[in-house]
Amino acid sequence: MTHVSLVSLLGERIHDVPVTRRADVVVVGGGSAGCAAAVAARRSGASVVLVEKSARLGGVGTAVLDTFYGFYTPGTNRKVVGGIGDEVVGALMGRDAAFIRPNTYGAGSGVTYSPEALLTVWDDLVAGSGVEVLFHSLVVDVAKVSEGRVGSVLVASKNGIGRISAPVFVDASGDADLSVFAGASFDGAGAGEKVQALTTTFRLANVDTEAARAFPKEELFAAMAEAAASGAYDLPRQEGSIHRTPVAGVSIANMTRVEGVDPTDVAALSRAEIEGRRQVGEYARFLRDRVPGYQRSELVGIGVRIGVRESRRVHGDYRLTADDVLAARRFDDVIARCGAPIEDHSGGTDTVWKYIPDSGVYDIPYRVLLPQGLENVAVAGRCLSATHEAHASCRSIAQCLAMGQAAGTAAALAVGAGGFRAVPVRLLQDRLVDAGAVLGEPAGELSRPSTRPA
Predict the structure, then answer these.
(1) Alpha helices in 46-105 (DSSP H)
(2) Cα–Cα distance, 255 to 229 (Å, whole number)
(3) Edge-to-edge order in the sheet of strand 132-134
(4) pTM (whole model) above 0.90
(5) pLDDT of residue 444
């Protein structure tokens, strides 16, 4: 669906739209990447406004999922993300609202938590750092001050249309909205490329957790295939995961699959929301009817919105590739690390997994955060510059947290430098390491523990 530009409609009159806020840094999107970016920029001395379209921080981490992946590598369980991510996990652990568990597919241990607890953790961390948070506010366009340089974002809210101006912006919208409004090129949704399937998660109560855990996943998947083949249940995906949560007797399922959707098309996304909830009913019924431990289960929660794995991926100064991932490649401009496998939910009844040999770890370079043609915009999170396969590895929440911290730290430096490409990479790396980021082997070069309390 083509974006109807307010700037093209209003022309010079766009400057008649009132400026309602000014800041050093504007962060668009309050998911994991956006929250980390906002906190990092504020701690680095910048004034920050965070614009979020919903009423909550945390993105899919509080609206869809309950587990952080990407902190640990498969097999060796090496920890490759620290910094603000550590603080978030520490705060959850301190509230007895999280635990570490092995991944169903051997993709490295995950940190499972209470989404409700994470909501207040992010509120405390973001607002507590001095960031101004604007909920119920949707960025609908940008106004440029010159070619390649954004001057303000146009925001629709209960107060009408207003502009928020800044010298520097971080696009953590997930869909690269700000970057695309500013003219950045991209791959994925809207560019004729198929993207990964969407998933609606759900929660069941009254689960006999021990009986459920004792039922092998191979038998669960076989039961799914048999149930689907019988015609009694519509189960598009015949694997997936369901696991315990910090709340006794409550499990969360990641099983549904809605394919062939462009998440940037509001009509297609709306149909996907309805289809995802329909599938939830089928999977919940299947579990209750045919899987040990779920006979008395009740559906008590459905994801606030459908989970989007992939939409637009910007064209950055560098594009991360599957070869980079599988070769565990190192980069001089590293700003984050990842050991997660390529996990591709593109379609069919199962998922494609490709693991990095020898539990390897690769670098995420600073250049993938810099959209071509834009001087004062950086992206963070799942709209980074990467191929479809590489993206399927580095989109985990832990990496989004790390990329967000890097983008926010760079944003504060870019205010004085005049743009993101003028930021000295080694200075950025030093600032990240001082804040607890892991940019090399644990306890090795470019890494040391954070001095901030969890």
Answers:
(1) 60-63, 84-94
(2) 17
(3) 132-134, 48-51, 25-28, 168-171, 377-379
(4) yes
(5) 38
